[in-house]
Amino acid sequence: MEPERSIQKFQGFIFDLDGTVYLGEKLIPGADKTILTLRNMGKKVVFLSNKPLYTREDYARKLTNMGIPTRASEVINSSYVMARYLSKVSPQTRIYVIGETSIINELQKAGFQLTEDPGEIEYVVVTFDRTFTYEKLNIAFQAIKQGAHLIATNPDRTCPHEDGEIPDCAGMIGAVEAVTGQKVEVIVGKPSSIMVEVILNVMKLRPQDCLIIGDRLSTDITMGKNSGIHTALVLTGVTNLADLKKAKIKPDYVFESIGEIHKEPAGQSVKK
Amino acid sequence: MEPERSIQKFQGFIFDLDGTVYLGEKLIPGADKTILTLRNMGKKVVFLSNKPLYTREDYARKLTNMGIPTRASEVINSSYVMARYLSKVSPQTRIYVIGETSIINELQKAGFQLTEDPGEIEYVVVTFDRTFTYEKLNIAFQAIKQGAHLIATNPDRTCPHEDGEIPDCAGMIGAVEAVTGQKVEVIVGKPSSIMVEVILNVMKLRPQDCLIIGDRLSTDITMGKNSGIHTALVLTGVTNLADLKKAKIKPDYVFESIGEIHKEPAGQSVKK
Fold it and tell me: How many CA atoms lie within 13 A of A139 on its CB side?
């Protein structure tokens, strides 16, 4: 914990979205001011999401509508990281996606060939899919039995939702792993080092020059800790002070909310 | 191994179905003769299946059509065992079934109230379901979050199929366990002691007076070993001699096929 040290020394600020910048459709008070202040100070800012349901353009539009003008290139989500990862390890490969229209279109645009023929599939890409069915599970199973790779966008068990929470990508991973008897080889989203690589590449900064700000210890803060990026927890999402006390992992900074950051240019931690 | 001991001493014969009595729609040669010979000797015969896709009546009809006249009361499948189990632990309870029409009808007929309202559900019953969807996963998740019990019919990873194999109940269990972070409390099908209890109750025999004949080490033979029922492996299903050699678990008898049993009234094991 470095409560007295300024966060001004950082050149790059990596913001988680849901629970950090907004909650569902509501901006967290002061988020806009904090982002604009940092940008005015010449800092680089990017936004992160593990959700493969929307494109980078969708997120940029949402933030812009909320008063934080944002370009798609400033957003890094797990479907974008998936496309980058696959382009690197196996360009133009034949894939089958357990996923919704958005990521399917994104991967198709990135040059991958989509197929439902198990004999042709080289990679089964498992993502958060509210249109998941037994038929999809069977295609994935038959493909993996014939040697296809098994990779996934994100490890999240559940996703926040207006009525509480709903099953996330872990459900689809659990089904495929159970029937194939095989574990996913790679999960590209937070807290994966694959996502970190894409972030640093987009920001053109070293890890030690960046601060990641998020609401989840198991993804945002863990990813920072694993990669040498400094970490700040906000208490507006899934983690409260009681959780933090019990947790083994400790962020470098703790803020009540993203809105506190612009008020405290010295970057003092409000709670230990 | 008791290769020289007669199987005539047993009073009850418990036959697995798929891989033992038939393969899909084809009777295994001599199965009819073996069953009829045993019945003529005054032995009790029942048939077992872990598949919750068909009713006991469906299996009785199939066997009768194949030349083995059978009553529904001589068939014990995992959906029947589930109905018996639930009737015992929580009669008239409110349940949600991840399953196909057949088991849903069977449980409804057994007096359980079906509901999709997570707040009302007391038991989530997970079964082999070729109509599984994200929506079903979400209902199960919301119910279990509110305290519903999680139970399942059978642990099978895959099910034999004309084109090879397809995902079985383990896929649905894997999805629900992964999103809820909870393990199924009870699986009633083979190799569960709950199924054994129903079998012995139906046969009115003691375990030591029975022989179970099946093709799977992990279900048929394991269940026998765990419960004091003697075991016979047939090599017409998923297990071959090489598998048997590597396996830790050893059946008391091994037959090339169910058809060998009536030819060898002394019940000699053809292979060690």
Answer: 21
- Identify the CATH number of the domain defined by range A79-187: 3.40.50.1000
Domain range list for chain B: 12-50+190-263, 79-187
Distance CA B224, CA B149 (A): 28
As a whole number of angstroms, the distance between CA B203 and CA B11 comes to 10
B168: which chain A residues are within 8 Å (Cβ-Cβ)? Answer: 179
Percent of chain A with pLDDT over 90: 89
| Model pLDDT for residues B133-148, shown as the tens digit of each residue | 999 999 999 999 999 9
Which of A129, A134, A174 is nearest residue B174 as measured by Cβ atoms?
A174
A173 and B171 in contact by Cβ < 8 A? no
Nearest-CA distance A144 → chain B (Å): 12
CB-closest option in A137, A157, A167 to B171: A137
Q: Which two tokens stand for residue A146?
A: 């014939």
Q: Tell me: the pLDDT tens digits for B170-211?
A: 999 999 999 999 999 999 999 999 999 999 999 999 999 999
- Give me the total of CB pairs closer than 8 Å, taking one residue from chain A and one from chain B: 83
Q: How far apart are CA A229 and CA B189, in angstroms?
A: 50
Q: Stretch A257-270: mean pLDDT, rounded?
A: 68
Matching fold, domains A12-50+190-263 and A79-187 = yes
Q: Which residues on adjacent β-strands are paired with residue A159?
A: A166
- Nearest CA distance, A94 vs chain B (angstrom): 22
Predicted ipTM of the assembly: 0.90
Q: Check if the beta carbon of residue B241 is closer than 8 Å to that of residue B223.
A: no
pTM, full prediction = 0.91
When the candidates are 3.40.50.720, 3.40.50.1000, 6.10.250.3280, 3.40.190.10, the CATH number that belongs to A12-50+190-263 is 3.40.50.1000
User: With 60 as the cut, is the pLDDT of residue B46 above it?
Assistant: yes
Interface test with B, best of A179, A183, A187 (most B CBs within 10 A): A179
